[in-house]
Design a protein that fits this description.
By secondary structure, this protein is mainly alpha-helical. Helices cover 79% and strands 0% of the residues. This is Tetratricopeptide repeat protein.
Length: 351
Amino acid sequence: MYGKAFAPEYQGALTGLSVNASLADVLAAGTERLRAAEREGSAAEAARSGLAVAEAHRRLGNVAEADRAWKASYRAARSAGDTAAMAWALWSGGTLARQRGALALSWRLLSLAAELGERGGDVVARGYSLAGLAETGRIQGDYEAVGALHEQLLAEARRRGEARHTVWALEGIAQMHRNNGSYDSAYALFAEAAGIAERADDRRGHAWALRGLADILSARDKDTDRALELLSEAEAACREMRLAGALAYNHKMRGNVLYRAARWAEARDLYEQALAEFREMGEPRGEALARLGLVKSLARLGRDREETAADLASLARDLERIGLRHSRRMVLAAYEELGVGHRAAGPEAGR
């Protein structure tokens, strides 16, 4: 039903790059081809190769370079009159904005990308842009608003037999089920995603699916050993492909698994590692989640209750500012879990 996974963001002369190519290799090839296109005066090819450069930088955590690259790709596409390439550049910019915590900007860029993708007749650009909108809403915790969009995109991806996009949609739906406490359905969806990704040779999607399975094995089944095994398998793929963001989230999840197993000192060390990784790549959502885990671990290790409460209040304010409602609810739950008083955590703190 599904063919081998491919990376539609690798375009023009770079279409032969594998979805599993090392990001260092993608960056090198994309930069070389971009310079050649600029020398040749080919704006269309500069836009397409510049997209790969932007995406490699983004996934490597090089935020400033990624920002410059997607904007240059958009300018080149506009100069060439290539509407579809403009859509892809805006998709990259919107994805970067979400990664940086600029959710309103992400929504604007991805909405425009979806519109241009449809106008330019690029169904994949439109689909990826709508998927970006769905993911932006999902990480904000607005499941009711984007749940139907996830299901729509899953159905479209299944019809096209597009493995990578199917895996993404399954993982997004699974995460919403997991966050709502529906562990069994979430596990089934993550397992389906893992199977499709493995058969399609989508190592990135497979690594994310393994992370989801590990989370549920830990939270539902208390199977710490198996959860850590899956995370180790996923980490190997992340390191080989140099997926900085996925690796940081893997480390954060390993911290979660260890925390649930009451191995708080080990969890603290993993949260500190993930926090440094998120800060290096300018990823405020991941940073906040790692901070939360670190605060909880330190509290379990005997940290002063007043200091814990103050840190939780600071986290709640930061998450309110970013607009991450589900993550903020996790902070409020931590007050109860740790038995510390609320500290000016925002309008919902006393509820």
